[in-house]
Design goal:
Elements: H1 3-13, E1 18-22, E2 26-27, H2 67-70, H3 73-81, E3 84-87, E4 94-99, H4 102-111, E5 116-119, E6 124-129, E7 135-139, E8 142-145, E9 151-152, E10 162-163, H5 166-169, H6 200-215, H7 221-236, H8 244-256, H9 261-274
Helix pairs in contact: 6-7, 6-8, 7-9
């Protein structure tokens, strides 16, 4: 039994999904049967595991803890040629912060909670308990290896492994795209009398409440945006007091939650139609 295979079986026995690496620290390419993703394209799957050919194809998704698969004849050639062992951190409930140079290590020591560290060729791996989406280049010299990613096994490391902190999770959160102003004219119904609102503060408060409702949405953002627009228009849409500045505030709040300008326009138009405020 090769040392690579022995290491892989030991890791698998502890619940760490493994796969062989060839020279250059890269996974083995697809076999002939799976060339050009003919088998269905395992990388597009959201869960790891070999495809039905049982060869170590498809990178991170081939990682397994099944000793029967690891010892299978279809894996034998890969282990004979393997230059290393990789593992799927997310499959083991782990996240690896891959620090590629001295500057990245200095940043981590100043910014991240201490945890187990593993020396690498050029830097360090910082290991945390907890999985998240993997991402490369989250900052200069820093990659995140967790779900849908693989990391080289370079030994158990030193130190006590800490829980995955929010500061690491935040590294993959993209800043919201700049809000693109969309001019919307709110039509007033013909024949409506004077504005019934006592003071401009009443309208401002309504807009602020709608902005807050949108910004606090944790799910069903589309529906929340529509309901917020509907609430504003049902109270303020018939007297003509809504201005472009008010609508831009609402659209900005929605776009900050990831809504596109088109979705905002559609939600606004649907709310107008529902309330009979649309002339179209």
């Amino acid at each position: 039994m090769s040392s690579q295979l022995h290491t892989a079986l030991s890791l698998a026995a502890s619940g760490v999904p493994v796969l062989p690496l060839r020279a250059g620290k890269v996974p083995f390419g697809n076999c002939r049967r799976c060339a050009n993703n003919a088998c269905g394209g395992r990388p597009n799957m959201k869960t790891p595991g070999p495809c039905t050919c049982l060869a170590p194809c498809h990178g991170w998704a081939a990682a397994t803890t099944d000793p029967g698969v690891i010892n299978a004849p279809t894996w034998a050639r890969a282990w004979r040629e393997a230059a290393g062992v990789a593992y799927h951190p997310g499959g083991a409930g782990l996240t690896v912060v891959d620090l590629d140079n001295a500057a990245a290590i200095a940043w981590a020591r100043a910014s991240l909670p201490t945890t187990r560290t593993v020396p690498t060729t050029r830097g360090e791996h910082w290991l945390y308990r907890g999985a998240m989406q993997g991402a490369n280049g989250v900052r200069s010299g820093v990659d995140i290896k967790s779900t849908m990613a693989y990391a080289r096994w370079l030994g158990p490391g030193a130190g006590t492994m800490g829980a995955l902190p929010d500061v690491v999770r935040a590294l993959i959160v993209k800043d919201p795209s700049p809000v693109r102003p969309v001019a919307i004219t709110v039509p007033a119904l013909v024949g409506v009398g004077a504005c019934p609102h006592r003071t401009p503060t009443y309208l401002d408060r309504g807009i602020a409440m709608a902005e807050q409702r949108i910004s606090e949405a944790r799910e069903a953002v589309h529906a929340t945006v529509y309901r917020a627009f509907l609430a504003v228009l049902s109270t303020h849409g018939r007297c003509g007091c809504l201005t472009e500045a008010h609508t831009l505030r609402l659209f900005a709040a929605a776009q900050a939650k990831g809504e596109s300008a088109r979705h905002c326009t559609d939600a606004w138009t649907n709310a107008l139609t529902t309330l009979g405020l649309s002339h179209g």
